[in-house]
Amino acid sequence: DAGVIQSPRHEVTEMGQEVTLRCKPISGHNSLFWYRQTMMRGLELLIYFNNNVPIDDSGMPEDRFSAKMPNASFSTLKIQPSEPRDSAVYFCASSPLMGAKNIQYFGAGTRLSVL
Amino acid sequence: DAKTTQPTSMDCAEGRAANLPCNHSTISGNEYVYWYRQIHSQGPQYIIHGLKNNETNEMASLIITEDRKSSTLILPHATLRDTAVYYCIVRVALDSNYQLIWGAGTKLIIKP
Question: Which is nearest to B48 in space by CA: B84, B74, B24, B68?
Fold first, then answer.
């Protein structure tokens, strides 16, 4: 398996532009997580899905952020409009739903710079 | 809020055992301890987890105290490639899934 695949790896945009981050989870995994990592705040959970349904979005910072999972093999995180303070590395992770191990497998991340 | 406390940084000589401590004094009876690490510019990587028994796999060993208030991750023969930030995490149960509560981690530097 190729693991969790995120695209793009790097994104540079100007303030006010729309940004879409993409994630392909590991085949067969039922849970998908979006995280944001900054030097100041560390790794923060933004939202997670079970079986394509958003379960907890309490970590989403503002209405400018939205996430979708239209099917089991694809998810997007959108920021509209983007602001400089959104600059961070965004990680997607997937895991089997429940289960004894419940290991989250992370993608390589998308480094977002908003100028 | 993070439920774990770890040293900010540690050094270890290459080839020696690296022992990374973690305090989780408020852990509940059904909450697991997980360890992940993050090598520079990569996503976090799972290492090992446990509930109350000591655990060992091909990467590391996990020693959990009897009262479960602390644990130690042991990398038996550290190499330069083990330089990373190591996160000790408590897994808490939510309504229909589990959530990993991440702290700041320990930056481990392996020196030649």
Answer: B74
Does B107 contact A at CB distance below 8 Å? no
In the predicted structure, residue A65 carries a pLDDT above the cut 80: yes
B91 touches chain A (CB under 8 A): yes
pLDDT at B31: 87
- Check residue B70 and report its DSSP letter: E
Q: Determine, for residues A55 and B96 on separate chains, whether the beta-carbon distance falls below 8 Å.
A: yes
Which whole-number Å values give the CA distances from A44 to A2, A48, A57, B60, B73, in the listed order? 25, 12, 12, 26, 23
Please state, in angstroms and rounded to a whole number, the distance separating the CA atoms of residues B74 and B19. 5
Whether residue A109 is predicted with pLDDT greater than 70 in this model: the reply is yes
Three-class secondary structure of residue B53 per DSSP: coil
| DSSP state letters, chain A | ----EEE-SEEEE-TT--EEEEEEPPTT--EEEEEEEETTTEEEEEEEEETTEEEE-TT--STTEEEEEEETTEEEEEESS--GGG-EEEEEEEE-SS-SS---EE---EEEEE-
Average pLDDT value over all residues in chain B: 92
Asked if B103 and B91 touch (Cβ cutoff 8 Å), the reply is no
